[in-house]
What does this fold into?
Amino acid sequence: MRLSDNAAEDIIAARRERAAGAEDSTFVGDTTTRLYYSSGCSALQNVASTNRISFKNKEEAEKAGYTLAKGCE
It folds into this structure.
């Protein structure tokens, strides 16, 4: 027998959607170059996943000593 809680499943699905949307608005830094990119910047694809660090906003990235990449202005 298996029990399911549809209301709980709906809440979890909504939270996952919000989290995915939040990831789209983050900034990603390159730990080797100390540059940061917006998540929509095409130059971000050139940053190795092992060198990435996430920031909530650009103020957080700049406070950590990162500079905005020129191609992502």
Q: What stands out?
A: The chain has a mean pLDDT of 85. The radius of gyration is 17 Å.
